[in-house]
Structure formats: structure tokens, C-alpha cells
Amino acid sequence: MTNKLDSTAPSTGDRTRARTYAREFWPGILGYLIILAAVITWGDLKGHSAWRFLWAILPVLPLLLVIRASVRHLGRSDDYQQLILLRGLGVGFVVAMATSITVAFLTLAGLQHPALPWVPFTAGMFSWAVTTAMLAAQAERA
Questions:
Q1: For a Cys staple, 24 with which of 69, 71, 87, 96, CB 3.0–4.6 Å?
Q2: Residues 15-58: pLDDT tens digits?
Q3: Could you give the residue ranges of the DSSP H alpha helices within 8-118?
Q4: The whole model's pTM is what?
Q5: Interacting residues of 110 by C-beta distance below 8 A, sequence separation 6+
Q6: How far apart are CA 141 and CA 55, in angstroms?
Q7: What is d(CA 133, CA 87) in angstroms, rounded to the nearest whole number?
């Protein structure tokens, strides 16, 4: 009887929380992709119009839905899931900040590359995902 209590399979509540998170998360991502395609197609970001600044920040608006979904998911998660998520976020934040300061100094030294501003974001997101996956896998083995 205790073997059912010790199962590592997601519980009904875990699955319900995951579905709710997906239902709140994916519309923001879809909106982001649609608006990003519109910005790339019609935004004229390299032009001289002042409107290019509005076009440039438009893709950020649907990401507010992603932030909302993530915060709500964190609030619905149990204590251990929160611990794993927050540890992963912490590592991602530290990596993003270290990468950001490195990129800033390299830029001050004269390094110029169009992809350079995306390096801190990519490093932070990647380290967050990898750390969270490692912590979750470690928890399942324990």
C-alpha cells in the first residue's frame, strides 16, 4: 500500500496545475510570436521614424501574460516545487547578471555584434532551464 504513496508519477493535482499553467502560458507565447512576426515584417526597426520604438516594444506586451502565468503557477505549486523553481530562477538570474556585466564591459571595450545584447538573456534562460531540470531529476532519484 505504501508503494502508491511513494510513486514519482505526477499526482492528479500536479497534472491539473500543469494544464492550468499551459493554458495560461501558451497564449502569451503565441501572441509574442505573432506580434514578433508583424514587427519583423512591418516594423522598419532600422528606419528613422519615431514609431520604430513603439514597434520594438510591442512583442513585450504579450510576454506580460507569460509573466502572469509564471507567477500564478509558482503560487499554485507546492513548497517543494516552489523550492526547485526558485533555485533554478536564482541560478538563471546570477548567470544572466554575470553575463550582462561581461557583455557591458566588452561593449565598453569596443566589441560590437548584433547578437551581443541577446547573450545575457540566452545564458540566463538556458541556465535556469538546465538547473531546474537537474534539480527535478535529482528530486525524483531521492
A1: 69
A2: 899 899 999 999 999 999 999 999 999 999 989 999 999 999 99
A3: 12-42, 51-57, 60-76, 79-108
A4: 0.76
A5: none
A6: 47
A7: 11
- Separation of first and last alpha carbons in the chain: 20
Residue 27 cell numbers, joined: 497564449
Q: What letter represents residue 13's amino acid?
A: G
- Report the C-alpha gap between 78 and 91 in whole angstroms: 20
Interatomic CA distance for residues 14 and 76, integer angstroms: 10
The C-alpha R_g of the chain, in whole angstroms, comes to: 20
- Provide the CB-side half-sphere exposure for 95 (13 A, CA): 18
Per-residue pLDDT, 13: 83
